[in-house]
Amino acid sequence: MLRYAADRRTMLWAFVFFPALPTIAYAAPTFAPYLIPIALYLGFSAGVFSHNHNHVPTFASKRLNAFYAMYLSFFYGFPTFAWIPTHNLNHHRYVNKPGDATITWRYSKKNTWLIASTYFWVSTYWQSDPIKEYLTKARARNPRLFRQAILQYAVVYGGHALMFALAVALHGLRLGALAYVCGLFIPSAFALWSMIFINYLQHVHCD
């Protein structure tokens, strides 16, 4: 089913290690904070997998690729289709030059802690326009693609809301929130932040 045998390791991480983290956090919420280093690593991995899947689909089957994109979206913390308009079609076209929504020099060409620490929020804001444009075109020209994108939003936000509710139902508000934050929120938030920050590190002061 895989296009490349090397992705057997990807499958191990994605379908064993990714769900194992929240499972352990939910089973033992008082132990959950000790899982944070692993959570950061797995969150970073989810970001890398999302990036790779949108450049080269992991499976030979279109249906499996669509399912995997939704699955990754849950752990990535944002619909993975967004890589297509912001990264594949925009960043790889303009490569940190005018027109690139993710340029590292939008307000300053200096490489300072202030610029670096605010880059995530600046880049996230400016990437919203290509995403909106992509969704508008998909809705008009490709309803199937539009439905997949909307379903990814539902999986991410609906799935996280349900998992938070489950954690609270199992352990009460304090321990439940701790289990959710350590098992799902921190890794997905770090996945988003790390991918955008790596873009900064790779491109700042590069032509």
Structure description:
- The protein is mainly α.
- Helix content is 76%, strand content 0%.
- Helix 2 packs antiparallel against helix 3.
- The longest helix has 61 residues, at 143-203.
- The protein is globular.
- The mean pLDDT is 97.
Question: Mind sketching the topology for me?
Answer:
Layout (H helix, E strand, L loop, with lengths): L6 H21 L8 H20 L6 H15 L6 H12 L18 H29 L1 H61 L4
Helix pairs in contact: 1-2, 1-6, 2-3, 2-6, 3-6, 5-6
Q: How would you sum up this structure in a few lines?
A:
This protein is mostly helical. It is 76% helix and 0% strand. It is globular.
Supply the number of helical segments. 6
Helix-and-strand structural type:
mainly alpha
Q: Averaging pLDDT over every residue, what do you get?
A: 97
Radius of gyration (Å) = 18 Å
Low-confidence residue ranges: none
Biggest sheet, in brief? none
Q: What is the number of strand segments?
A: 0
**Helix percentage:** over 70%
Please trace the helix and strand order, writing H or E for each element.
HHHHHH
Overall body shape: globular
Please report the distance between the alpha carbons of the first and last residues. Answer: 40 Å
Task: Estimate what percentage of residues fall within beta strands.
Answer: under 5%
